[in-house]
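Holo prediction — ribose-5-phosphate.
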Amino acid sequence: MPGVEEMKEGKKYYADRPQQTEGFFLKGSNSLDWGMKNRLARIFNPRSGRTVMLAIDHGYFQGPTTGLERIDINILPIVPYADTLMLTRGILRSIVPPATQQAIVLRVSGGTSILKELSNEEIAVDIEDAIRLNVCAMAVQVFIGGEYEKQSIINMTRMVDMGNRYGIPTLAVTAVGKDMARDARYFRLAVRICAELGAQYIKTYYIEDGFETVTASCPVPIVMAGGKKIPELDALTMAYRAVQQGASGVDMGRNIFQSEAPVAMLQAVRAVVHDNETPEKALELYKTLKNKK
Ligand code: R5P
């Protein structure tokens, strides 16, 4: 125990220096609570304000997708190069080591398969389980214009309510039906509905024409969805344009794990997202890393 004399001396109050109150680095997130901000700061790198999420949740409706047949063999070696891992609780518990440092985004909607109507989802995870798994966000599919549009929106708002209670952000994933127009007008509508109804961030597709109007009219961060496998340069170009046009990062699956060199591809995507590297330079990096291997 310090003596009374010691307690009187050596105190530095810096009375002339007002306490700094920092704003939170992420778009539209300044009024969130501490725990939620802390989780978001584990998903989004505070230095760049962006994230590279690795999506491996496909199995929840389409089974062992090409590249995800053996997550222990094909995916675990890539994980250290991602900021965030997006997956189901089944794969998390059965395969992913609990010492993993990457932020976990847990898929919490489900209940359908590729054999049936995909929009007919429900909430498929209890909030208590998300807390137990120490996740940084919960991902819910939202089908604007889909057959079960309302049900999917309500799934999202229920997760937002529960997430707000415990400080866990909700990621709204905008799903587009096969027969819907993938244009700026549709995506402005879809992401804005998700943001207005409380999602803390939103995953949506890149479009060539007017993507900057989608990000500009969305008050919270957007991450670009990857989509089906395309050539590496095209995927890097898409990611580059998305972040240059206002996206706060990417959430890519097949374009990473179906690449010939997934670790090299993930590092090339990181260069584009975190360091504003051009697609051409990032492709060079990809080729160098691929050949090293
Ligand atoms: C569907 O919409 C899911 O979120 C996916 O399973 C996944 O996240 C898609 O990733 P990608 O299209 O980049 O393979």
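READOUT: The pocket of ribose-5-phosphate is lined by residues 55, 57-58, 86, 173, 175, 225-227, 252-255 (CB under 6 Å).
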